[in-house]
TrEMBL record:
PANTHER family: PTHR43968, S-TRANSFERASE, PUTATIVE (AFU_ORTHOLOGUE AFUA_2G00590)-RELATED (PTHR43968:SF8). This is Glutathione S-transferase. InterPro entries: Glutathione-S-Trfase_C-like, Glutathione-S-Trfase_C_sf, Glutathione_S-Trfase, Glutathione_S-Trfase_N, GST_Omega/HSP26, Thioredoxin-like_sf. It comes from the Eukaryota. It holds the Pfam family GST_C_2. GO terms for cellular component: cytoplasm. SUPFAM superfamilies: GST C-terminal domain-like (SSF47616), Thioredoxin-like (SSF52833). Residues 4-85 form the GST N-terminal domain. CDD domains: GST_N_family. It comes from Actinomortierella ambigua.
Amino acid sequence: MTVGKPTLYTSYICPWAQRAHVAVAETGFEVETVQIDLSKPREAWYLEINPYGQVPALKNKDDDFVILESAIVAQYIAELHPEAGLIVSDPKERAESNFLVHQFANRVQPAWVKVAYTTDKAKRAELEAEFVKQLRDFNSYLQKASHSTGKGPYTFGAKFTLADVQLGPLLSRFFLAERHQPGYKLPTKASHPELARYFEWQDALLARPSVASTTADHEVLVNHTKKFVN
């Protein structure tokens, strides 16, 4: 009996949903995609699949098994295809990997959000300084994580792993800070040479075909995120 492809409910403008698409691109996992319009209230049929109304959601056709939350969906896809090498096998490195994802998603990215979307000019210098501080901390963590496998460019040396799958989509939105804040310039290798390891990692992830090809058009992202500036 032929089993149908799983269905990936997604939105091409959502960085969290993009994690699943990067995992799909890296593994060759075959899915059917259904786009969910995030600008509208979710329809009842989708709330039956995901009561939270979020994307992504991955649903099997043969047993109606549903997986929610972007990190879990990406990990599930990666574990179905161990030959892709996305899963870090060493327990210590896996712990480091999880820590790096946690730190970036909970420290660096929120600090960037405040810079990208604030209109409070009085707090701008403070917010920008905090963003750079979080980048410095993350740079230090990256350097330590690389010790066991050699230098970059990815989180653990030359191998692109699940940590990179999960963080590439977040990095792909950082350009928005300059678009929403006229005159603001993101840190660069020239302005912040102490972040050399971070920039090596950033550049490698943004150039990775699975990340670049699944990132929505920049102008589309700019127009979609204007509403967050306040």
